[in-house]
Design brief:
heterodimer; A: 233 residues; alpha/beta; Rossmann fold; 2 domains; 6-stranded mixed sheet; 5-stranded antiparallel sheet; 7 helices; B: mainly alpha; 76% helix
Chain lengths: 233, 276
């Protein structure tokens, strides 16, 4: 089981602390919702956790199965990220974008001969589960915003990492698919003991799917709060 | 509604606001052309157009294709010069273009590489050829070097502009989930610029085949060298015609072919650009 731990984490943005002294410990199998108004630093916190931004203070560590400690660099292949602006490669097919999820496991062979058939089948299965199987061979640039968001989610599901960091992953989806994606995340946490961070706005989704709610306070950088979400009856 | 049935007067404008500037410009050019033409005619003996034309036809026609195999051979050499120099230039330009792209490289590197690209572009291919003929002597190698340097300036600029228009965040995102730098380029950036790079390279190849046929005039190999030889011979004008017809034929053919291939690439690789 993986454990994510932050130690006195702090980040400055525009000469202002966004958060400070952030100490959290999240055990595997948890779905954490990050909340707070726009601009409060939800994306910045996810950037720190993903290693794309270096915090001004403190550190982040991941304890994996055998007690080995990893940092944001060495955990990379086990880190799945759904970016707010998705960051898909436009001029390749939807299927290829999904296959890029396992890029850390591919090498020169795949870049010349193409991706293995079983992987393609698996990626297609995930796309079908998200209702966009028929788009597999379409150019990503020709699909809609919601379809691209589902493609990005499929990429992370295909990668199947221990930790998923998702920045408003369902913002472009209708209620049906938003619930479906959150349900998939819920299962990954409960069954496969993964850690999932989601920046979310919808209180209904939070109370339905999250284990913890982490809220950041725009007034006080140290006023962050991590609370357990009451299980729904 | 105006209840008094008064006619509203159109507001007047200053005289210079009423001028149609483009028409004025046209008049100025017309005036300049008449003036310059008159000047040029005054200083030189007016050409005897009709006898000149008769002389031209007599000297240049019919085209002399007797050495057709030699013409074909040097056309082949022209092709080879163009292909080799374009390929080398594309490879080097891809690397240089990374250095000249503001979104990936530090500004000192961008400034230096852009300066270099500007300088290579300033010199026409004929001057490059002339310089390299002094280096290597009158050989096709001089031609290859000349066209490579000339193409570097253009391709480096084109490619770096393509790279700059791309969203580098996609490649960075792939790096965050474990891609190495080569994979990040290959899967995050290259698919998006591929069509442009191909299309620009093919344009350069077309251009280089045209250039390769004239740089021979200063001794850098190819069909231009044959052209030069034929011009220097007293009886060679009919061969000049034959060579020119061959060049014309090839260039037109190439133009059509290049256009077709480029359209196919842009449609296949980037279906969105059909509309623009």
């Amino acid at each position: 089981m993986t454990i994510l731990r932050t130690d006195r984490l702090g980040l400055i943005r525009n000469q202002k602390w966004l958060f400070q002294n952030l100490n959290i410990e999240i055990p595997g199998g948890s779905l954490v919702a990050i909340l707070g108004p726009s601009g409060v630093g939800k994306s910045s916190l996810l950037s720190c956790l993903s290693g794309s931004e270096t915090p001004n203070e403190g550190k982040i560590e991941f304890e994996i199965n055998n007690g080995e400690i990893k940092n944001t660099q060495s955990i990379r292949p086990e880190l799945g990220i759904i970016f707010q602006n998705l960051r898909l490669t436009e001029h390749v097919t939807v299927l290829e974008n999904v296959l890029y999820g396992k890029i850390a496991h591919y090498g020169l062979k795949e870049s010349i001969l193409g991706f293995p058939k079983p992987d393609q089948q698996k990626a297609y299965q995930i796309l079908s589960d998200l209702g966009i199987g028929k788009l597999a061979y379409k150019w990503t640039s020709q699909t809609s915003g919601g379809e691209q968001q589902r493609t990005a989610i499929a990429r992370t599901l295909f990668q199947s990492p221990q930790i998923i960091l998702a920045d408003e992953p369902v913002s472009n989806l209708d209620t049906y698919y938003a619930g479906r994606v959150m349900g998939l995340f819920r299962n990954l946490a409960t069954i496969e003991k993964k850690i999932i961070f989601c920046a979310l706005h919808d209180p209904q989704l939070i109370s339905r799917f999250a284990d913890f709610a982490l809220s950041l306070n725009p007034e006080h950088p140290e006023g962050w709060n991590l609370r357990k979400v009451k299980p729904k009856k | 509604m105006n209840s008094h049935n008064e006619i509203e007067k159109l507001p007047s404008r200053a005289w210079y606001e009423q001028l149609n500037l483009l028409n004025v410009l046209l008049l100025i050019f017309l005036f300049l052309t008449i003036f310059s033409g008159k000047n040029l005619m005054d200083e030189n003996r007016p050409a005897d157009v009709i006898s000149g034309f008769k002389y031209f036809v007599k000297k240049f026609f019919p085209p002399d294709f007797s050495d057709f195999s030699l013409i074909l051979e040097s056309l082949g050499e022209t092709f080879q010069i163009a292909i080799v120099s374009t390929f080398i230039a594309v490879i080097f330009s891809l690397v240089i273009a990374i250095g000249a792209s503001r979104n990936v490289s530090p500004s000192w590197l961008v400034q230096t590489t852009r300066m270099f690209l500007n300088i290579t572009r300033t010199l026409p291919s004929l001057i490059w050829a002339f310089l390299f003929v002094i280096f290597f002597g009158p050989t096709p190698i001089a031609g290859v070097f000349a066209l490579t340097f000339y193409s570097l300036g253009y391709l480096g600029k084109f490619f770096s502009e393509s790279f700059e228009s791309m969203d580098i965040k996609v490649a960075r995102g792939l790096k965050l989930i474990g891609a190495n730098p080569v994979q990040a380029f290959l899967y995050g950036l290259w698919p998006n610029v591929k069509a442009q790079v191909w299309s620009q390279s093919l344009w350069m190849l077309e251009y280089n085949i045209r250039s390769a046929s004239i740089i021979g005039l200063v001794g850098a190999g190819g069909i231009g060298m044959e052209l030069n030889k034929a011009m220097e011979m007293a009886s060679g004008f009919q061969r000049v015609t034959a060579i020119l017809i061959c060049i014309l034929f090839i260039v037109i053919l190439l133009d059509l072919l290049g256009q077709g291939i480029r359209r196919w690439i842009t449609q296949k690789v980037n279906p969105k650009s059909i509309s623009d």
